[in-house]
Design a protein that fits this description.
Blueprint (H helix, E strand, L loop, with lengths): L5 H18 L2 H10 L2 E6 L4 E7 L4 E4 L8 E4 L1 H8 L5 H6 L3 E4 L6 H23 L8
Parallel strand pairs: 1-4
Antiparallel strand pairs: 1-2, 2-3, 4-5
Helix pairs in contact: 1-5, 2-5, 3-5
């Protein structure tokens, strides 16, 4: 499966966040927002940064910041391998393919609850982006 053009990657990530928002319960959103109100995702191989801002009401895309309190950094292929079941995020982390900065170990549970919805949402957003537009109905 060929990857979408890099310019489309940011759109896929933004769609991923919108999809994650629909998958989390209000209680999960609130826990995530309390534990990590801002998570900056960095993909240096495709020069992309995206910030997920979490509140009790919604997850949304925010502007990346210079000194984020919480950062997850990985290659785009690492995310795609995990989303499509080719490698687990845990194995990628242990292999040094994922770098996390700023996580309080006591908040690990809130981050882990985000992993499955994140991978599922990325897969859905990716497949949506790869689908040709539907023909107009006449």
């Amino acid at each position: 499966m060929a990857s979408p053009a890099p310019a489309d990657f940011t759109a896929i990530l933004a769609r991923m966040i919108a999809l994650i928002d629909t998958k989390l319960s209000p209680v999960q959103r609130e826990k995530l927002g309390t534990a990590m109100p801002s998570i900056q995702w960095e993909f240096p191989d495709v020069d992309t940064k995206l910030c997920l801002a979490a509140s009790k009401d919604a997850l949304r895309v925010a502007e990346p910041v210079d000194h984020p309190p919480f950062v997850v950094r990985m290659a785009r292929s690492t995310l795609e391998d995990a989303a499509f079941g080719r490698r687990s995020l845990g194995a990628a982390f242990l292999a040094g393919r994922i770098h996390v900065r700023g996580m309080n170990p006591l908040r690990l549970r809130e981050f882990i609850m985000l992993v499955d919805p994140l991978l599922e949402s990325y897969r859905e957003a990716y497949l949506e982006s790869a689908s040709p537009p539907s023909a107009p109905v006449s």
